[in-house]
Write a structure and sequence with these properties.
This protein has strands at 3-5, 8-10, 32-38, 45-47, 53-61, 65-70, 75-79, 85-87, 92-98, 107-113. By secondary structure, the chain is mainly beta.
Length: 114
């Protein structure tokens, strides 16, 4: 059964959807993305797509920093130090991987966005 909204029926397949959110609701489905695989020989490496990065996945990283710039203009460094992970909490404009400790470690992963 649907719900009348803006003179159009909104149908779902899994029951009732209730929300108090206003504005834009994001999904986890993104039209754009790419992978990266850098061997550590030529830092810094930058990812700066035309799209906004919604999800950033690091699958391999040594002792390097990921300098993240959000679409709001905030820039901060995230030390990876051999860590891997998935980040989807920021709307990311660009990511630059740096090697301030001179380890020449590889870094690889992927991003998705819109």
């Amino acid at each position: 059964m649907g719900v009348e909204q803006f003179s159009q029926m909104v149908r779902g397949s899994g029951g009732t959807l209730r929300t108090a959110a206003t504005g834009v609701m994001e999904t986890d489905n993104y039209a754009h993305g790419d992978a990266f695989d850098e061997d550590g020989s030529a830092y810094p490496y930058s990812i700066n797509p035309a799209e906004t990065i919604q999800e950033l996945t690091i699958t391999q990283a040594g002792d390097v920093d990921a300098e993240i710039t959000t679409t709001g203009g905030d820039t901060f460094a995230l030390r990876l130090h051999g860590g891997v992970g998935v980040w989807d909490k920021w709307e990311i404009d660009s990511v630059t991987f740096r090697d301030p400790r001179g380890t020449a470690a590889a870094v690889s992963g992927a991003w998705a966005g819109e």
